[in-house]
Design goal:
CATH architecture of chain A: Orthogonal Bundle
Largest interface: A-B, 39 and 39 residues
Distance between the termini of chain A: 51 Å
Distance between the termini of chain B: 22 Å
Order of helices and strands of chain B: HHHHHHHHHHHHHHHHH
Number of domains of chain A: 1
Largest sheet of chain A: 3 strands, antiparallel
Shape of chain B: globular
CATH topology of chain A: Arc Repressor Mutant, subunit A
Helix content of chain B: 55-70%
CATH topology of chain B: Amino acid/polyamine transporter I
Shape of chain A: globular
Oligomer: heterodimer
Structural class of chain A: mainly alpha
Helix content of chain A: 40-55%
Number of strands of chain B: 0
Strand content of chain B: under 5%
Order of helices and strands of chain A: HEHHEEH
CATH class of chain B: Mainly Alpha
CATH superfamily of chain B: Amino acid/polyamine transporter I
Number of helices of chain B: 17
Strand order of the largest sheet of chain A: 1-3-2
Protein backbone atom coordinates (compact mmCIF):
# COMPACT_ATOMS: atom_id res chain seq x y z
CA UNK A 1 0.00 0.00 0.00
CA UNK A 2 1.27 3.45 -0.92
CA UNK A 3 1.49 5.33 2.36
CA UNK A 4 1.62 8.71 0.69
CA UNK A 5 -1.66 8.27 -1.16
CA UNK A 6 -4.81 9.68 0.36
CA UNK A 7 -7.87 7.84 -0.86
CA UNK A 8 -9.99 4.78 -0.47
CA UNK A 9 -11.61 4.72 2.95
CA UNK A 10 -9.19 7.21 4.47
CA UNK A 11 -11.29 10.35 3.95
CA UNK A 12 -14.18 8.71 5.81
CA UNK A 13 -11.83 7.67 8.63
CA UNK A 14 -10.61 11.25 9.03
CA UNK A 15 -14.19 12.54 9.00
CA UNK A 16 -15.17 9.98 11.64
CA UNK A 17 -12.23 10.87 13.89
CA UNK A 18 -13.03 14.57 13.72
CA UNK A 19 -16.72 14.00 14.39
CA UNK A 20 -15.83 11.88 17.44
CA UNK A 21 -13.63 14.69 18.77
CA UNK A 22 -16.34 17.26 18.33
CA UNK A 23 -18.91 14.95 19.92
CA UNK A 24 -16.73 14.56 23.01
CA UNK A 25 -16.18 18.33 23.10
CA UNK A 26 -19.94 18.94 22.82
CA UNK A 27 -21.09 16.29 25.29
CA UNK A 28 -18.45 17.16 27.88
CA UNK A 29 -16.05 15.20 30.09
CA UNK A 30 -17.31 11.85 31.33
CA UNK A 31 -19.16 10.93 28.14
CA UNK A 32 -18.96 7.22 27.34
CA UNK A 33 -18.11 5.54 24.06
CA UNK A 34 -21.68 4.24 23.79
CA UNK A 35 -23.06 7.77 24.12
CA UNK A 36 -20.67 9.03 21.44
CA UNK A 37 -21.59 6.25 19.03
CA UNK A 38 -25.33 6.73 19.49
CA UNK A 39 -24.98 10.54 19.22
CA UNK A 40 -23.19 10.11 15.88
CA UNK A 41 -25.23 7.08 14.75
CA UNK A 42 -21.88 5.36 14.25
CA UNK A 43 -21.46 1.58 14.62
CA UNK A 44 -20.11 0.83 18.11
CA UNK A 45 -17.15 -1.18 16.78
CA UNK A 46 -16.06 1.78 14.62
CA UNK A 47 -16.45 4.20 17.51
CA UNK A 48 -14.36 1.97 19.80
CA UNK A 49 -11.59 1.68 17.26
CA UNK A 50 -11.43 5.40 16.53
CA UNK A 51 -11.57 6.28 20.20
CA UNK A 52 -8.82 3.79 21.04
CA UNK A 53 -6.64 5.50 18.43
CA UNK A 54 -7.46 9.01 19.64
CA UNK A 55 -6.79 7.99 23.26
CA UNK A 56 -3.47 6.39 22.32
CA UNK A 57 -2.48 9.60 20.49
CA UNK A 58 -3.64 11.56 23.56
CA UNK A 59 -6.23 13.73 21.80
CA UNK A 60 -8.71 12.02 24.11
CA UNK A 61 -8.23 10.76 27.66
CA UNK A 62 -9.91 7.80 29.35
CA UNK A 63 -10.98 8.95 32.82
CA UNK A 64 -9.95 6.77 35.79
CA UNK A 65 -13.21 4.82 35.67
CA UNK A 66 -11.94 3.63 32.23
CA UNK A 67 -15.39 4.30 30.70
CA UNK A 68 -15.69 8.08 30.63
CA UNK A 69 -13.81 10.19 28.08
CA UNK A 70 -12.53 13.76 28.05
CA UNK A 71 -10.57 15.91 25.64
CA UNK A 72 -6.85 15.40 26.12
CA UNK A 73 -4.20 18.02 26.79
CA UNK A 74 -2.87 17.44 23.28
CA UNK A 75 -6.01 19.15 21.91
CA UNK A 76 -4.41 22.32 23.17
CA UNK A 77 -2.02 22.06 20.19
CA UNK A 78 -5.10 22.39 17.98
CA UNK A 79 -7.08 24.93 19.97
CA UNK A 80 -4.95 26.87 22.45
CA UNK A 81 -7.16 27.90 25.32
CA UNK A 82 -6.45 30.26 28.11
CA UNK A 83 -7.72 28.84 31.35
CA UNK A 84 -10.25 31.19 32.98
CA UNK A 85 -8.87 32.75 36.15
CA UNK A 86 -11.00 30.44 38.24
CA UNK A 87 -13.23 27.57 37.26
CA UNK A 88 -15.07 27.33 40.55
CA UNK B 1 -15.09 2.43 40.25
CA UNK B 2 -15.86 6.15 40.14
CA UNK B 3 -12.62 7.74 41.25
CA UNK B 4 -12.06 11.48 41.36
CA UNK B 5 -9.48 12.89 38.97
CA UNK B 6 -6.27 13.65 40.78
CA UNK B 7 -3.77 16.38 40.13
CA UNK B 8 -0.83 14.07 40.85
CA UNK B 9 -0.41 10.54 39.52
CA UNK B 10 -0.58 7.80 42.17
CA UNK B 11 2.76 6.72 40.74
CA UNK B 12 4.35 10.16 40.97
CA UNK B 13 8.09 10.14 41.47
CA UNK B 14 8.99 8.12 38.40
CA UNK B 15 10.13 10.43 35.61
CA UNK B 16 6.74 10.62 33.90
CA UNK B 17 6.60 10.85 30.08
CA UNK B 18 10.38 10.95 29.77
CA UNK B 19 11.25 7.87 27.67
CA UNK B 20 11.10 7.90 23.88
CA UNK B 21 10.14 5.09 21.57
CA UNK B 22 13.69 3.76 21.27
CA UNK B 23 14.11 3.31 25.02
CA UNK B 24 10.74 1.57 25.28
CA UNK B 25 11.66 -0.81 22.47
CA UNK B 26 15.03 -1.31 24.16
CA UNK B 27 13.31 -2.57 27.29
CA UNK B 28 11.40 -5.32 25.46
CA UNK B 29 14.30 -6.32 23.24
CA UNK B 30 16.86 -6.45 26.02
CA UNK B 31 14.75 -8.61 28.35
CA UNK B 32 13.94 -10.95 25.48
CA UNK B 33 17.72 -11.11 24.88
CA UNK B 34 17.50 -12.49 21.34
CA UNK B 35 21.22 -13.05 20.87
CA UNK B 36 21.72 -15.01 24.08
CA UNK B 37 18.57 -16.99 23.27
CA UNK B 38 19.71 -17.73 19.71
CA UNK B 39 22.99 -19.08 21.00
CA UNK B 40 21.79 -21.04 24.03
CA UNK B 41 18.11 -22.05 23.78
CA UNK B 42 17.91 -24.28 20.66
CA UNK B 43 20.20 -26.83 22.35
CA UNK B 44 18.02 -26.80 25.48
CA UNK B 45 14.85 -27.26 23.41
CA UNK B 46 16.48 -30.08 21.45
CA UNK B 47 17.45 -31.82 24.67
CA UNK B 48 13.71 -32.29 25.34
CA UNK B 49 12.12 -32.26 21.91
CA UNK B 50 14.74 -34.18 19.96
CA UNK B 51 13.66 -34.34 16.33
CA UNK B 52 10.62 -32.12 16.97
CA UNK B 53 12.68 -29.06 17.90
CA UNK B 54 11.32 -26.85 15.12
CA UNK B 55 7.78 -27.92 15.97
CA UNK B 56 8.38 -26.88 19.57
CA UNK B 57 9.40 -23.44 18.33
CA UNK B 58 6.28 -23.35 16.14
CA UNK B 59 3.98 -24.06 19.09
CA UNK B 60 5.77 -21.44 21.22
CA UNK B 61 5.41 -18.85 18.45
CA UNK B 62 1.66 -19.50 18.18
CA UNK B 63 1.31 -19.08 21.96
CA UNK B 64 3.36 -15.88 21.91
CA UNK B 65 1.33 -14.48 19.00
CA UNK B 66 -1.95 -14.95 20.90
CA UNK B 67 -0.41 -13.45 24.01
CA UNK B 68 0.84 -10.46 22.03
CA UNK B 69 -2.71 -9.67 20.93
CA UNK B 70 -3.77 -9.75 24.58
CA UNK B 71 -0.90 -7.63 25.89
CA UNK B 72 -1.46 -5.04 23.16
CA UNK B 73 -5.14 -4.78 24.09
CA UNK B 74 -4.24 -3.98 27.70
CA UNK B 75 -1.23 -1.80 27.03
CA UNK B 76 -3.11 0.43 24.59
CA UNK B 77 -5.61 1.21 27.36
CA UNK B 78 -3.60 1.24 30.60
CA UNK B 79 -0.18 2.72 31.29
CA UNK B 80 0.86 0.49 34.18
CA UNK B 81 4.34 -0.05 35.67
CA UNK B 82 2.90 -3.18 37.31
CA UNK B 83 2.30 -4.47 33.75
CA UNK B 84 0.63 -7.94 33.72
CA UNK B 85 -0.09 -7.78 37.46
CA UNK B 86 -2.11 -4.61 36.99
CA UNK B 87 -3.80 -5.94 33.86
CA UNK B 88 -4.97 -9.06 35.73
CA UNK B 89 -6.19 -6.89 38.62
CA UNK B 90 -8.27 -4.82 36.19
CA UNK B 91 -9.77 -7.90 34.59
CA UNK B 92 -10.11 -10.53 37.30
CA UNK B 93 -9.65 -8.67 40.59
CA UNK B 94 -7.27 -8.71 43.54
CA UNK B 95 -6.63 -12.40 44.30
CA UNK B 96 -5.81 -13.52 40.74
CA UNK B 97 -3.67 -10.37 40.51
CA UNK B 98 -1.67 -11.42 43.57
CA UNK B 99 -1.06 -14.81 41.93
CA UNK B 100 -0.05 -13.21 38.61
CA UNK B 101 2.04 -10.52 40.32
CA UNK B 102 4.03 -12.90 42.48
CA UNK B 103 4.53 -15.33 39.57
CA UNK B 104 5.66 -12.43 37.37
CA UNK B 105 8.02 -11.23 40.11
CA UNK B 106 9.55 -14.72 40.15
CA UNK B 107 9.78 -14.54 36.35
CA UNK B 108 11.61 -11.19 36.33
CA UNK B 109 13.81 -11.88 39.37
CA UNK B 110 14.89 -15.35 38.34
CA UNK B 111 15.41 -14.36 34.69
CA UNK B 112 17.69 -11.63 35.98
CA UNK B 113 19.50 -14.22 38.10
CA UNK B 114 19.86 -16.69 35.25
CA UNK B 115 21.21 -14.08 32.85
CA UNK B 116 23.59 -12.79 35.51
CA UNK B 117 24.93 -16.35 35.66
CA UNK B 118 24.97 -16.52 31.85
CA UNK B 119 27.02 -13.33 31.68
CA UNK B 120 29.50 -14.61 34.25
CA UNK B 121 29.70 -18.01 32.49
CA UNK B 122 30.46 -16.55 29.05
CA UNK B 123 32.92 -14.04 30.48
CA UNK B 124 34.74 -16.93 32.13
CA UNK B 125 34.60 -18.89 28.85
CA UNK B 126 36.18 -15.89 27.15
CA UNK B 127 38.79 -15.74 29.90
CA UNK B 128 39.53 -19.43 29.36
CA UNK B 129 39.88 -18.92 25.61
CA UNK B 130 42.43 -16.18 26.15
CA UNK B 131 44.21 -18.19 28.83
CA UNK B 132 43.33 -15.86 31.72
CA UNK B 133 41.41 -18.46 33.73
CA UNK B 134 41.19 -22.24 33.69
CA UNK B 135 38.67 -23.93 31.38
CA UNK B 136 36.83 -25.40 34.38
CA UNK B 137 36.49 -22.46 36.79
CA UNK B 138 35.98 -23.27 40.46
CA UNK B 139 32.71 -22.41 42.22
CA UNK B 140 34.43 -19.58 44.07
CA UNK B 141 35.67 -18.01 40.83
CA UNK B 142 32.24 -18.28 39.22
CA UNK B 143 30.66 -16.81 42.34
CA UNK B 144 33.09 -13.89 42.26
CA UNK B 145 32.24 -13.25 38.61
CA UNK B 146 28.51 -13.34 39.45
CA UNK B 147 28.99 -10.81 42.26
CA UNK B 148 30.98 -8.45 40.01
CA UNK B 149 28.32 -8.63 37.30
CA UNK B 150 25.63 -7.99 39.94
CA UNK B 151 27.41 -4.90 41.25
CA UNK B 152 27.85 -3.51 37.74
CA UNK B 153 24.13 -4.09 37.09
CA UNK B 154 23.11 -2.29 40.25
CA UNK B 155 25.29 0.67 39.34
CA UNK B 156 23.65 0.95 35.89
CA UNK B 157 20.15 0.66 37.29
CA UNK B 158 20.51 3.23 40.03
CA UNK B 159 21.81 5.74 37.47
CA UNK B 160 18.24 5.84 36.19
CA UNK B 161 16.20 4.27 33.47
CA UNK B 162 17.57 6.49 30.70
CA UNK B 163 21.13 5.30 31.23
CA UNK B 164 20.30 1.66 31.82
CA UNK B 165 18.01 1.32 28.80
CA UNK B 166 20.46 3.03 26.45
CA UNK B 167 23.31 0.84 27.68
CA UNK B 168 21.11 -2.23 27.30
CA UNK B 169 19.98 -1.42 23.76
CA UNK B 170 23.45 -0.55 22.50
CA UNK B 171 24.85 -3.73 23.99
CA UNK B 172 22.03 -5.89 22.63
CA UNK B 173 22.20 -4.36 19.15
CA UNK B 174 25.90 -5.21 18.91
CA UNK B 175 25.24 -8.70 20.27
CA UNK B 176 22.43 -9.42 17.78
CA UNK B 177 24.58 -8.33 14.85
CA UNK B 178 27.43 -10.54 16.05
CA UNK B 179 25.23 -13.60 16.59
CA UNK B 180 23.35 -13.17 13.30
CA UNK B 181 26.70 -12.91 11.54
CA UNK B 182 27.76 -16.14 13.21
CA UNK B 183 24.51 -17.90 12.29
CA UNK B 184 24.64 -16.72 8.67
CA UNK B 185 28.29 -17.74 8.37
CA UNK B 186 27.39 -21.17 9.73
CA UNK B 187 24.43 -21.41 7.34
CA UNK B 188 26.57 -20.50 4.34
CA UNK B 189 29.14 -23.08 5.36
CA UNK B 190 26.40 -25.73 5.64
CA UNK B 191 24.66 -24.87 2.39
CA UNK B 192 27.98 -24.69 0.61
CA UNK B 193 27.99 -28.44 1.34
CA UNK B 194 31.74 -28.56 1.80
CA UNK B 195 33.32 -28.48 5.24
CA UNK B 196 35.43 -25.40 4.54
CA UNK B 197 38.91 -24.94 5.98
CA UNK B 198 40.17 -27.29 8.68
CA UNK B 199 38.13 -26.96 11.85
CA UNK B 200 40.03 -25.23 14.62
CA UNK B 201 39.05 -26.37 18.10
CA UNK B 202 35.71 -27.88 19.07
CA UNK B 203 34.08 -30.98 17.65
CA UNK B 204 33.44 -30.91 13.92
CA UNK B 205 29.69 -31.25 13.37
CA UNK B 206 29.00 -33.03 10.11
CA UNK B 207 25.50 -33.34 8.65
CA UNK B 208 24.81 -37.05 8.35
CA UNK B 209 22.31 -36.70 5.47
CA UNK B 210 22.00 -34.17 2.64
CA UNK B 211 20.53 -30.88 3.81
CA UNK B 212 17.30 -31.06 1.76
CA UNK B 213 16.47 -34.54 2.97
CA UNK B 214 17.23 -33.61 6.54
CA UNK B 215 14.89 -30.60 6.31
CA UNK B 216 11.99 -32.82 5.20
CA UNK B 217 12.79 -35.25 7.97
CA UNK B 218 12.71 -32.40 10.51
CA UNK B 219 9.41 -31.02 9.27
CA UNK B 220 7.78 -34.40 9.70
CA UNK B 221 8.98 -34.14 13.28
CA UNK B 222 9.97 -37.78 13.55
CA UNK B 223 11.93 -38.83 16.56
CA UNK B 224 10.03 -36.59 18.98
CA UNK B 225 7.14 -37.56 21.21
CA UNK B 226 4.29 -35.26 22.16
CA UNK B 227 5.39 -34.67 25.76
CA UNK B 228 8.89 -33.95 24.51
CA UNK B 229 7.47 -31.50 21.98
CA UNK B 230 5.41 -29.71 24.65
CA UNK B 231 8.31 -29.64 27.09
CA UNK B 232 10.49 -28.26 24.32
CA UNK B 233 7.86 -25.64 23.50
CA UNK B 234 7.85 -24.62 27.14
CA UNK B 235 11.61 -24.15 26.99
CA UNK B 236 11.31 -22.32 23.67
CA UNK B 237 8.99 -19.94 25.56
CA UNK B 238 12.03 -19.17 27.71
CA UNK B 239 13.58 -17.37 24.76
CA UNK B 240 10.50 -15.17 24.31
CA UNK B 241 9.69 -14.27 27.90
CA UNK B 242 10.19 -10.62 28.65
CA UNK B 243 8.99 -9.39 25.25
CA UNK B 244 6.07 -7.78 27.11
CA UNK B 245 8.31 -5.95 29.56
CA UNK B 246 8.06 -2.60 27.74
CA UNK B 247 4.74 -2.44 29.59
CA UNK B 248 6.66 -1.91 32.84
CA UNK B 249 7.70 1.52 31.52
CA UNK B 250 4.05 2.63 31.39
CA UNK B 251 4.74 5.28 34.01
CA UNK B 252 7.77 6.67 32.22
CA UNK B 253 7.16 6.37 28.48
CA UNK B 254 6.12 9.28 26.32
CA UNK B 255 2.75 8.51 24.69
CA UNK B 256 2.76 5.09 26.38
CA UNK B 257 -0.51 3.85 24.89
CA UNK B 258 1.08 4.02 21.42
CA UNK B 259 4.72 3.19 22.00
CA UNK B 260 4.28 0.24 24.36
CA UNK B 261 1.95 -1.92 22.24
CA UNK B 262 4.01 -1.07 19.17
CA UNK B 263 7.29 -2.07 20.84
CA UNK B 264 5.80 -5.34 22.11
CA UNK B 265 4.54 -6.24 18.62
CA UNK B 266 7.78 -5.34 16.86
CA UNK B 267 9.88 -7.27 19.34
CA UNK B 268 7.84 -10.43 18.80
CA UNK B 269 7.97 -10.14 15.01
CA UNK B 270 11.73 -9.69 14.88
CA UNK B 271 12.72 -12.28 17.48
CA UNK B 272 10.38 -14.95 16.06
CA UNK B 273 12.23 -14.69 12.75
CA UNK B 274 15.64 -14.71 14.44
CA UNK B 275 14.80 -17.76 16.56
CA UNK B 276 13.48 -19.79 13.65
CA UNK B 277 16.65 -19.01 11.71
CA UNK B 278 18.95 -19.86 14.61
CA UNK B 279 17.07 -23.06 15.49
CA UNK B 280 16.96 -24.19 11.85
CA UNK B 281 20.69 -23.70 11.33
CA UNK B 282 21.64 -25.48 14.54
CA UNK B 283 19.22 -28.37 13.93
CA UNK B 284 20.48 -28.78 10.37
CA UNK B 285 24.05 -28.85 11.61
CA UNK B 286 23.73 -31.18 14.58
CA UNK B 287 20.52 -33.13 13.91
CA UNK B 288 19.00 -34.79 16.96
CA UNK B 289 22.35 -34.65 18.76
CA UNK B 290 21.96 -30.87 19.20
CA UNK B 291 20.78 -31.32 22.78
CA UNK B 292 24.14 -32.56 23.96
CA UNK B 293 26.13 -29.53 22.81
CA UNK B 294 26.73 -26.76 25.36
CA UNK B 295 27.80 -24.06 22.89
CA UNK B 296 26.62 -25.24 19.46
CA UNK B 297 26.99 -21.89 17.69
CA UNK B 298 30.55 -21.54 18.87
CA UNK B 299 31.38 -25.02 17.55
CA UNK B 300 29.62 -24.27 14.28
CA UNK B 301 31.48 -21.08 13.57
CA UNK B 302 34.74 -22.80 14.42
CA UNK B 303 33.92 -25.53 11.87
CA UNK B 304 32.96 -22.89 9.35
CA UNK B 305 36.54 -21.69 9.50
CA UNK B 306 35.93 -18.71 11.77
CA UNK B 307 37.90 -19.51 14.93
CA UNK B 308 37.88 -15.84 16.00
CA UNK B 309 34.08 -15.93 15.93
CA UNK B 310 34.01 -18.05 19.09
CA UNK B 311 35.50 -15.26 21.19
CA UNK B 312 33.20 -12.73 19.52
CA UNK B 313 30.18 -14.91 20.30
CA UNK B 314 31.26 -15.18 23.92
CA UNK B 315 31.33 -11.39 24.12
CA UNK B 316 27.95 -11.17 22.37
CA UNK B 317 26.23 -13.63 24.68
CA UNK B 318 27.78 -12.06 27.76
CA UNK B 319 26.56 -8.64 26.58
CA UNK B 320 23.10 -9.94 25.78
CA UNK B 321 22.90 -11.64 29.16
CA UNK B 322 23.90 -8.42 30.86
CA UNK B 323 21.29 -6.40 28.95
CA UNK B 324 18.65 -8.95 29.87
CA UNK B 325 19.59 -8.93 33.53
CA UNK B 326 19.37 -5.12 33.50
CA UNK B 327 16.00 -5.09 31.78
CA UNK B 328 14.52 -7.78 34.01
CA UNK B 329 15.64 -5.96 37.13
CA UNK B 330 14.18 -2.73 35.71
CA UNK B 331 10.81 -4.40 35.22
CA UNK B 332 10.98 -6.13 38.61
CA UNK B 333 11.73 -2.86 40.37
CA UNK B 334 8.71 -1.19 38.65
CA UNK B 335 6.48 -4.08 39.69
CA UNK B 336 7.60 -3.89 43.34
CA UNK B 337 7.28 -0.11 43.18
CA UNK B 338 3.67 -0.33 41.96
CA UNK B 339 2.84 -2.88 44.66
CA UNK B 340 4.43 -0.69 47.32
CA UNK B 341 2.35 2.30 46.18
CA UNK B 342 -0.75 0.16 46.70
CA UNK B 343 0.70 -0.66 50.12
CA UNK B 344 0.90 -4.37 49.27
CA UNK B 345 4.55 -4.00 50.26
CA UNK B 346 6.65 -1.85 52.51
CA UNK B 347 6.08 1.78 51.52
CA UNK B 348 9.85 2.34 51.40
CA UNK B 349 9.95 0.30 48.20
CA UNK B 350 7.65 2.92 46.67
CA UNK B 351 10.16 5.75 47.06
CA UNK B 352 12.02 7.18 44.09
CA UNK B 353 15.42 8.82 44.05
CA UNK B 354 15.20 12.63 44.02
CA UNK B 355 17.76 13.00 41.23
CA UNK B 356 17.63 9.88 39.02
CA UNK B 357 13.88 9.30 39.64
CA UNK B 358 14.65 5.58 39.71
CA UNK B 359 12.78 3.55 42.33
CA UNK B 360 16.10 3.00 44.07
CA UNK B 361 14.91 1.06 47.12
CA UNK B 362 13.02 -1.39 44.92
CA UNK B 363 16.14 -1.73 42.76
CA UNK B 364 18.45 -2.40 45.71
CA UNK B 365 16.01 -4.93 47.16
CA UNK B 366 15.71 -6.66 43.78
CA UNK B 367 19.42 -6.73 43.07
CA UNK B 368 20.43 -8.10 46.46
CA UNK B 369 18.16 -11.12 45.89
CA UNK B 370 19.16 -11.40 42.23
CA UNK B 371 22.85 -11.61 43.13
CA UNK B 372 22.63 -13.72 46.29
CA UNK B 373 20.62 -16.69 44.99
CA UNK B 374 22.93 -17.58 42.08
CA UNK B 375 26.00 -17.13 44.30
CA UNK B 376 24.53 -19.69 46.72
CA UNK B 377 23.68 -22.06 43.84
CA UNK B 378 27.13 -21.84 42.31
CA UNK B 379 28.89 -22.24 45.67
CA UNK B 380 26.72 -25.27 46.44
CA UNK B 381 28.38 -27.05 43.55
CA UNK B 382 26.20 -26.47 40.47
CA UNK B 383 28.24 -25.57 37.42
CA UNK B 384 27.31 -22.39 35.55
CA UNK B 385 25.36 -24.13 32.78
CA UNK B 386 23.30 -26.24 35.19
CA UNK B 387 22.53 -23.17 37.34
CA UNK B 388 21.56 -21.21 34.24
CA UNK B 389 19.18 -23.91 32.96
CA UNK B 390 17.54 -24.43 36.36
CA UNK B 391 17.01 -20.68 36.88
CA UNK B 392 15.78 -20.19 33.32
CA UNK B 393 13.15 -22.89 33.77
CA UNK B 394 11.93 -21.50 37.10
CA UNK B 395 11.67 -18.05 35.54
CA UNK B 396 9.76 -19.35 32.53
CA UNK B 397 7.24 -21.14 34.73
CA UNK B 398 6.70 -17.89 36.65
CA UNK B 399 6.20 -15.91 33.47
CA UNK B 400 3.85 -18.46 31.91
CA UNK B 401 1.61 -18.52 35.01
CA UNK B 402 1.26 -14.74 34.69
CA UNK B 403 0.72 -15.10 30.92
CA UNK B 404 -2.13 -17.59 31.38
CA UNK B 405 -3.87 -15.27 33.84
CA UNK B 406 -3.47 -12.16 31.71
CA UNK B 407 -5.00 -14.00 28.74
CA UNK B 408 -7.97 -15.07 30.83
CA UNK B 409 -8.30 -11.52 32.17
CA UNK B 410 -8.85 -9.96 28.73
CA UNK B 411 -12.51 -10.93 28.18
CA UNK B 412 -13.37 -9.82 31.73
CA UNK B 413 -11.53 -6.52 31.24
CA UNK B 414 -13.29 -5.72 27.97
CA UNK B 415 -16.63 -6.53 29.62
CA UNK B 416 -15.81 -4.16 32.49
CA UNK B 417 -15.05 -1.45 29.97
CA UNK B 418 -18.37 -2.14 28.27
CA UNK B 419 -16.58 -2.76 24.97
CA UNK B 420 -17.89 -5.26 22.47
CA UNK B 421 -14.97 -7.59 21.82
CA UNK B 422 -16.10 -11.17 21.49
CA UNK B 423 -13.32 -11.89 18.98
CA UNK B 424 -10.56 -10.44 21.13
CA UNK B 425 -12.00 -12.09 24.23
CA UNK B 426 -11.89 -15.43 22.41
CA UNK B 427 -8.23 -14.82 21.50
CA UNK B 428 -7.59 -14.36 25.23
CA UNK B 429 -9.33 -17.62 26.14
CA UNK B 430 -7.60 -19.64 23.42
CA UNK B 431 -4.25 -18.07 24.37
CA UNK B 432 -4.87 -18.98 28.00
CA UNK B 433 -5.55 -22.60 27.06
CA UNK B 434 -2.49 -22.89 24.79
CA UNK B 435 -0.22 -21.33 27.42
CA UNK B 436 -1.65 -23.57 30.12
CA UNK B 437 -0.79 -26.55 27.90
CA UNK B 438 2.80 -25.27 27.62
CA UNK B 439 2.93 -24.87 31.38
CA UNK B 440 1.83 -28.49 31.78
CA UNK B 441 4.43 -29.44 29.18
CA UNK B 442 7.25 -27.94 31.26
CA UNK B 443 6.07 -29.89 34.31
CA UNK B 444 5.79 -33.23 32.51
CA UNK B 445 8.72 -35.57 32.81
CA UNK B 446 9.87 -36.61 29.35
CA UNK B 447 12.05 -39.36 28.02
CA UNK B 448 14.97 -36.99 28.53
CA UNK B 449 14.06 -34.99 31.65
CA UNK B 450 13.37 -36.89 34.86
CA UNK B 451 10.46 -36.19 37.15
CA UNK B 452 12.29 -34.50 40.01
CA UNK B 453 13.97 -31.83 37.92
CA UNK B 454 10.77 -31.24 35.92
CA UNK B 455 8.76 -30.62 39.10
CA UNK B 456 11.24 -28.38 40.90
CA UNK B 457 10.49 -25.14 38.97
CA UNK B 458 6.69 -25.29 39.44
CA UNK B 459 7.27 -26.08 43.12
CA UNK B 460 9.44 -22.98 43.56
CA UNK B 461 6.89 -20.76 41.80
CA UNK B 462 4.00 -22.37 43.69
CA UNK B 463 5.72 -21.74 47.00
CA UNK B 464 6.33 -18.05 46.25
CA UNK B 465 2.72 -17.62 45.07
CA UNK B 466 1.40 -19.31 48.21
CA UNK B 467 3.48 -17.05 50.45
CA UNK B 468 2.33 -13.96 48.52
CA UNK B 469 -1.33 -15.00 48.81
CA UNK B 470 -0.98 -15.65 52.52
CA UNK B 471 0.65 -12.27 53.04
CA UNK B 472 -2.03 -10.54 51.01
CA UNK B 473 -4.86 -12.15 53.00
CA UNK B 474 -3.14 -11.20 56.24
CA UNK B 475 -2.62 -7.60 55.07
CA UNK B 476 -6.21 -7.12 53.98
CA UNK B 477 -7.53 -8.16 57.36
CA UNK B 478 -5.81 -5.11 58.81
CA UNK B 479 -6.43 -2.96 55.74
CA UNK B 480 -9.83 -3.76 54.15
CA UNK B 481 -9.29 -1.08 51.48
CA UNK B 482 -6.34 -2.97 50.00
CA UNK B 483 -8.20 -5.04 47.35
CA UNK B 484 -9.70 -1.84 45.92
CA UNK B 485 -6.27 -0.25 45.58
CA UNK B 486 -4.78 -3.17 43.68
CA UNK B 487 -4.58 -2.39 40.00
CA UNK B 488 -3.05 1.06 40.38
CA UNK B 489 -1.93 2.48 37.06
CA UNK B 490 -0.63 5.76 35.71
CA UNK B 491 -4.13 7.18 35.47
CA UNK B 492 -4.74 10.52 33.76
CA UNK B 493 -4.33 13.56 35.99
CA UNK B 494 -5.90 16.99 35.60
CA UNK B 495 -3.02 18.32 33.50
CA UNK B 496 -3.57 15.52 30.94
CA UNK B 497 -6.97 17.00 30.12
CA UNK B 498 -7.70 19.87 27.80
CA UNK B 499 -8.30 22.97 29.98
CA UNK B 500 -11.94 23.20 28.89
CA UNK B 501 -12.51 19.75 30.35
CA UNK B 502 -10.76 20.30 33.67
CA UNK B 503 -14.13 20.87 35.30
CA UNK B 504 -14.75 20.58 38.97
CA UNK B 505 -17.89 19.33 40.64
CA UNK B 506 -18.78 16.82 37.98
CA UNK B 507 -21.65 18.61 36.20
CA UNK B 508 -21.45 16.74 32.94
CA UNK B 509 -23.20 13.86 31.21
CA UNK B 510 -21.73 10.41 31.59
CA UNK B 511 -21.45 11.20 35.26
CA UNK B 512 -18.11 10.58 36.79
CA UNK B 513 -19.64 12.43 39.70
CA UNK B 514 -16.60 13.76 41.42
CA UNK B 515 -14.06 15.23 39.03
CA UNK B 516 -12.24 17.28 41.60
CA UNK B 517 -8.76 18.51 42.02
CA UNK B 518 -7.86 16.90 45.32
CA UNK B 519 -4.75 19.02 45.70
CA UNK B 520 -6.68 22.29 45.51
Amino acid sequence: MDEGRFGGRQPQAVRNALSVLSAVARLGPGVTVKQVSSELAMPAATAYRIIALLVAEEYLVRLPDLRGLALGARMEELLPTRLPASTT
Amino acid sequence: MRAPLRSVSPLAGLRRRSLGEVEVLAQSVSVTAPSAAMASTPALVAASAGGATLWSYGVAIVAVALLTVVVRQFSSRLAAPGSLYTYVARGLGALPAVVAGSALAVGYAVLSMSTTVLTAWYLLALGARTGLVTATPSGALTATAVILVGLLLTACLVRGIGTSSRVALGVEAVAVILVVTGVVAALLALVGAHPGPTPVGGVAPTPTVPVGELALHLLRGTGGDLTGLLHGAGLAMASFVGFESAAALGGEARRPLVTIPRSVGRTVLVVSGLYLLAALVQVLAFGSGLGSHAQPLVELTATAGLPWAAAVLDVAVACSGFACATGSATALARLLFAMARERSHDAALGLTHPRSHAPHNAILASMSVVTTVPVVLVLSGLDARAAFVLLLTVSTVGYVVAYVLVCLALPAFLRRLGEPGAGRGAVGLVGGVVLAALLMGVMLPTARVERASALLPPLVVGLVVAVALGRHLQLRRRDPGLPQRIGLYDEPVLSDLHPSHRLQGGAFPGATPDLTNDAA
